[in-house]
Every structure is written in C-alpha cells, then in structure tokens.
Specification:
The chain is mostly helical and 101 residues long. The protein has helices at residues 7-18, 24-43, 48-67, 73-84, and strands at residues 89-91, 97-99. The chain is 63% helix and 6% strand. Strands 1-2 form a two-stranded antiparallel ribbon. It starts with 6 loop residues before the first helix and ends with a strand.
C-alpha cells in the first residue's frame, strides 16, 4: 500500500483547519491526551479498527510536529528502524526492551 499522506500534507491540513501552532508543546500535550485515549481503548478491548484509529490520531500529531520542523516522519521512522536493527537489546520480558549498544 502506498502512503497518501505525508508530514507536509498533514501539517498543511492542520494549519488550514486549526491555525498556526504557537507552541509545539501544544501538539505534544494533545498527543498525550490521545495516548491516554488509546490506552483506554486497549484496556477496554475495543476493536482493532478503533485501536488503529486512536493510534492514527497520535501519528497525525507527530506528523504535524515533525512537519513543522521541515522533516518527514516516515523517513525518520525508516532511519530509526535501520539503526534499531543494528543495536543490541536488553529484553524486559514483556515484549519491550531497551538498547544497550
């Protein structure tokens, strides 16, 4: 599947819809609110579609934040994953972990 949206297109939409972002922390705080909603959806056993929609809200806010810096979130994810694949990880035993090298 080809991605239709980009950080630039989402940032432009956000400015048209909500106006200019005066403080980037507003996007971060809004993402925190959406993250709490996502957690509630998971804990409530919401459908995969609803969970994905809640996760997308967070991704949209992150695209706007990165787009305002003139970057592309999708490229940053690709670069970060390339780096992550070369790292050594300490496993937490719960499906997560932290890199040690």
């Amino acid at each position: 599947m080809v991605t239709i949206e980009s950080s630039a297109s989402i940032t432009a939409w956000g400015e048209r819809t909500f106006g200019q972002v005066a403080d980037l922390n507003a996007l971060i705080e809004r993402a925190r609110e959406e993250l709490a909603a996502l957690q509630m959806a998971v804990e409530s056993g919401d459908s995969a579609r609803d969970v994905a929609a809640d996760a997308a809200e967070i991704a949209i806010l992150l695209h706007r934040l990165v787009g305002l810096h003139g970057a592309e979130l999708s490229f940053a994810v690709d670069e970060k994953m390339a780096r992550n694949r070369t790292r050594i990880w300490s496993l937490a035993g719960d499906g997560t972990g932290r890199h040690v090298a």
